[in-house]
Amino acid sequence: MSNELRWGIAIGWLVSACVAPGIANAGEVRLKNGIVVTGNLWQADELSKPPIPYGQALAVKDVDPICRNIVLIDNGWQKFFVPRQQIAAAGVNLNLVSSRPEGFEFKHLKTNQTRAIASAGSFVGVSPFDEFGVRKIFLTSQPEQLKVVQAIRRIEPDHVELEGLNYNWRVGLSLKAIPQETLKALLRRKVRTDEAGDRLQLVRFYMQAELYPQAFEELDTIERDFPDQQSLAESLRSQLMDYFGHEVLRELNRRKGAGQHLLANEYAQKLSAQNVSGSVMDDIRKLLADNDRIRKSIDQAKNMLVEWQNKLKERQLLLDVQPIRGEINEQLNIDTLPRLQAFLQSETDREMSAEQRLALAYSGWLVGAENAITDLQLAIRYWEARFLILEFLRADSPQERDRLLQDLKQVEGVGPKAILQIIALLPTIREDGGILPGQIHRVLIGPMGQNPHVAYSVVLPPEYSPLHSYPLLIVLRSQSRTNEMTLRWWCGDDESPGPAMRRGYIVIAPELAKEDETEYKSSDAAHQVMMACLRDARLRFNVDSNRVFLAGQGMGADAAFDLGMSHPDEFAGVIPIGGKLTHYQKLATSNGRHTAWYVVGRGFTPDDPKTPSPVAQRDTASDGVFNAMFDAGFHFDFILVECLGLGLERDHTDMPGMFHWIDLQRRKPIPAAFEVQSVRKTDNRFFWVTAADQPRTPESQPTPADRLTISASFVKGLGEFDVLKVSSRTKNHIIRFLPALIDFDRRVIVNVNNHQKYKGFMTPDVSSMLNELRITGDRTRLPWATVEY
Fold it and tell me: What count of other Cβ atoms lies within 10 Å of the Cβ of residue 285?
């Protein structure tokens, strides 16, 4: 295998597990969300209380009635805290056996070890690692800036451990955080080049770390330098090729799922010529065969359209279908081909007319193959309806929107159900401006935004296409970083793409705070900016609204806690890194059950060898809120991760674990009943209810008396009436009647604050659907009727 192929395919690719394999651990925990974590297992009832070994029965003297519902998995440099209720059935394995990982120790000269870092505040700067694995960190401190010298003291396949040389400060980092040049230089200093055993140990380390290009390179030199080790080297090479092939295959499938079809096919072609294992080669050939089959199906579909359209006899029909066929010819690809599946399958039906076949093609293109029809005239009216819908959504004038809405209602045979199907496959509403994938581009929200000065920066993934649906990651900067630095941290660049790019995420960084601000202010304005940016991204790009994630570091993590608690129905998951919870979030903690949480805490200091404790010297500032979330573990998909050392928010780079969790998450279904807490005027909209006249946001620190409880429920009745109830302290409520919740063929009773407001059939209204899409950009939760009571 050529070095070019090894590096081109494998460099920087991610592992798919939360913790690297091969580490000796006491147990394994599989969560309901699919995450698997390994380490030493403990259990506790509160974060700050000493845990006991997992599964240990309570002693007779232990009369504490609280269930030990916090499970701690400790792998030495990371601690994972999860609610017991989120562990899958039979998801704990206490008999895990694994081999000891390869590791390397380094010694450095230390000074002033009596000084300790009590808290790692905001950093001013971090120098690169030198060839000895030493770096300098500059922290904000009083009365002067603090300089800490850190050095790498141990390297293992999944992480490195750093120690302070002028302060007592140990830190654990993912191995992926260390530049490859630094890692290679350090290992070369440790490994004796004239000892075959040392060199083979290095190969095994690279294999365990899934650094395959480095492993291949080292094996090449071993075979050259130690001919007598040829047999062992060949055995390792065979094993390495198998591991490498499976990892590359997983990555190819991830790339393909992310819409990066050209890249996946190119690498698959190259890999097919290599000496990989039989099972891997079979999968590679199947992937290439599938791609070839898809290309043939695309050509077949285009040829069939020509063939059957030439058989149309009416000139007007030919004119009417020509623009649809033109769009299909231009946009038919691997992502859009499934829309024509019903048309392709009709090839074997000899009874169908040309009009019926073309109706399947053109209607399938507009509403999906599963909703395709055989009425060509109605399919043409679908096209007319789609044009009017797009014009409505792009119109700035209310008068123009009213005119277009009336025209749409006059299109025969196109009701709310068909419009919902058309909306699902609509082109993007706003122009993307020709933004190049991988480049940072600033988007200034136009006249349709709440504020013309609202802006965000965006990075699109490789091979971005408006015809492919993408997850969206919203990232919020820390107090010491710019939006550009934050985007590069998540996305990487052209030479070294980051995990968000490789996994096909659109990433945006809203301008939530001014450049000189160093603290999140929990203001109404911040919420308005966030929602305006989310709305614009949904309208401008092809965003999967059920896969929108919110992440922040430092000050941005504070904002992520706040926004995630205040608008939980907008996000599939929230990832605060090194943040804290303030009074606003504490009053709305219960809202968090409606989304998922991957919280990276502020870290922990090493245990005192004389009195070891799995939770020693943690940052306990947010424990009260976290304990409440653990207590409600049946409702919270919640993971708290803490890393060794009170590290900087920029240093948390366990990207594989984080993105593995993100990839598994989807927004929760619309609940038929919910109760939420609102503290601000901007936080009055949840799922299918809005408290329309909520009092203004408290100017000072809010108290429980400032909190507004909004309760809503929908119960399908046993008789002829279903019952919908809403209650809060406000007088006016907007209720959105969603077809996923309400049966429009049944009568409904609407009770608001214990007063009956409506009794009868709810009439579908197209304007409710289109105005909701125009306001939110969310295509997946559109009401058929919206009423204010």
Answer: 12
The helix (H) or strand (E) run that includes residue 718 is: none
User: DSSP assignment, residue 439?
Assistant: S
In degrees and rounded to multiples of 5, residue 134 shows phi and psi of: -110, 140
Distance CA 455, CA 478 (A): 17
Asked if residues 151 and 133 have their Cβ atoms less than 8 Å apart, the reply is yes
pLDDT band at 119 (very low <50, low <70, confident <90, very high): low
Cα(387)–Cα(717) distance, integer angstroms: 40
Question: Counting every residue, how long is the chain?
Answer: 789
What phi and psi values does residue 189 have, to the nearest 5 degrees? -70, -25
Question: In sequence order, what DSSP letters do the residues of 37-88 get, joined into one string?
Answer: EEEEEEEESSTTSPPEETTPPPPTT----S---EEEEE-SSEEEEEEGGGEE
In one-letter notation, the amino acid at residue 541 is F
From the list 381, 350, 375, the residue with the least C-alpha distance to 361 is: 375
The yes-or-no verdict on residue 698 having pLDDT over 90 is no
Angstrom distance (rounded) from CA 548 to CA 530: 13
Asked if residue 748 lies in contact with residue 784, where contact means CB atoms within 8 angstroms, the answer is no
pLDDT of the residue at 12:
31
Q: How many angstroms separate the CA atoms of 472 and 699, rounded?
A: 32
Q: Which two tokens stand for residue 239?
A: 């094993």
- The residue among 716 and 447 whose pLDDT is bigger is 716
Buried b or exposed e, range 569-588, using 16+ CB within 10 angstroms: bbbbbbbbbbbbbbebbbbb
Q: How far is it, in rounded angstroms, from Cα 120 to Cα 169?
A: 10
- Helices 416-424 and 766-776, axial angle in degrees (round to 10): 20
CA distance 303 to 700: 68
For tokens 């990207």, name the residue.
655
Q: What are the pLDDT digits (tens) for 428-484?
A: 999 888 899 999 999 998 654 455 579 999 999 999 999 999 999 999 999 888 999
Q: Give yes or no for a contact between 533 and 769, defined as CB atoms under 8 angstroms apart.
A: no
**Whether 671 contacts 693, CB under 8 Å:** no
Distance CA 341, CA 777 (A): 28
Note if the pTM is more than 0.85.
yes
Sign of the torsion angle spanned by Cα atoms 770, 774, 775, 781: positive
CB 477 within 8 A of CB 517: no
CA distances in angstroms from 13 to 56, 185, 782, listed in the order given = 40, 21, 38
Cβ pair 352, 374 in contact under 8 A? yes
Sorted by sequence, the CB contacts under 8 Å of residue 310 that are 6+ apart come out as none
DSSP structure string for 444-474: E--TTSS-TT-EEEEEPPTT--TTS-EEEEE
Q: How far apart are CA 320 and CA 382, in angstroms?
A: 12
- How far from 787 is each of 189, 442, 684, 734, 770, CA to CA, in Å? 72, 37, 16, 6, 14
What pLDDT score does 23 carry? 33
Instruction: Supply the pLDDT for residue 20.
Output: 33
| Amino acid at position 106, single letter | F
If you search the block for the tokens 């072609």, which residue do you land on? 269
Measured distance CA(225)–CA(219) in Å, rounded: 10
189-193, 583-587, 667-671, range with the lowest pLDDT:
583-587
Q: Determine if residue 613 is left, alpha or beta; phi over 0 gives left, psi from -120 to 50 gives alpha, anything else beta.
A: beta
Q: Which residues of 11-20 are buried (b: 16+ CB within 10 A; e: fewer)?
A: ebbbbebbbb
Q: Which of 283, 255, 258, 254 is nearest to 271 (CA)?
A: 283
Torsions phi, psi for 773 (to 5 deg) = -65, -40
Task: Select from 342, 369, 373, 371 the least CA-distant residue to 356.
Answer: 373
SS3 category, 756: strand
Label residue 438 left, alpha or beta by phi (over 0 means left) and psi (-120 to 50 means alpha).
left
How much is the average pLDDT of 158-170?
89
Strand partners for 78: 643
Q: What is the pLDDT of residue 99?
A: 66
At 232, list the tokens: 């062992």
